[in-house]
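Cross-posting from the chemistry board since nobody answered there.

I work mostly on the small-molecule side, so proteins are not my area. We synthesized zinc ion and want a rough idea of how it might sit in this target. Sequence and SMILES are below. Is it possible to get a predicted 3D structure of the two together?
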Amino acid sequence: MLSPFDARRSHQETQYVGRFAPSPSGPLHLGSLVAALGSYLRARQMDGKWLLRIEDIDPPREQANADELIKETLVRHGLLWDEDVIYQHNSHERYEQALKYLRVNGHCYFCQCTRKQRLANPKGQPCACAQLALSPQGSATVLRNTVAVHEIDDLALGRVSFEEQSKDDFILRRKDGLYAYQLAVVVDDIASGVTEVVRGADILPATAYQLALYNLFAQPAPAYVHLPLVMGDNGQKLSKQNHAPPLNNELASSNLCTALETLGLRVPSHLNNAPVTDILDFAVHNWSVALTADNPHAFDNRIDA
Ligand SMILES: [Zn+2]
């Protein structure tokens, strides 16, 4: 069976396409603004497209109306996306096709382990289910990871090594039938022609799994820029799970200045209360990934791969 995706030329020959891909599990907070802003600035600097994708593949964790709140916050911060918003719940057929391709080509097995059993399994070793021909009914679909992707050259972090993750099998579809993040994100990034992924460093370890899928689909992987995380007073990264305060849209200019500082760019004081368009214009002309990479404190809190 052939790859479900068309053969594609290398990214060097195509237009820059970036994206911001929040899950609708709650409103945006400062940490998500840093990721949105970094990816927005890259797309604008590269004269490319900036897409917005709502990653609504996990209904139990979603919050009603969060997608509307996210869009409102982006608009109020001047972060206007190109094209229609992409919703992952519309991509199920594509995920199924991709899954079928991997299954037919022998890259998957069915697993009936509980989460606890999976975690108890030694790292880098498949569970016993890998040797059994279990029924797909009530099983998770797991990728038999033989690709062994070891490293990337991240534009912000430099060379990152994934010795550990490169040997892990990982779930493509959960027991409850929901598609896993790793599969959905790669399938949608390929479908949208994304050439560069700019996101928070908390997702860095997942990159190894995603690269394995790019390989199996015979698609060129995007370039990667992993950005610093914003830490709360409790020393944990800001996240919806940690109840990070939602962004106050009334303070959009000040929020942008704070996010830019995390990215290594100090905004001159005369712009502190300027309209968001002026601050973004300044940032498009003055920010670079190198500023983030060179900011000595930016990655103090990065989660190591
Ligand atoms: Zn298992």
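Reply from a structural biologist on the board:
Welcome over. Reading the output above for you: Residues 111-113, 127, 129 surround zinc ion (CB under 6 Å). The chain has a mean pLDDT of 90. Happy to explain the token format if needed.
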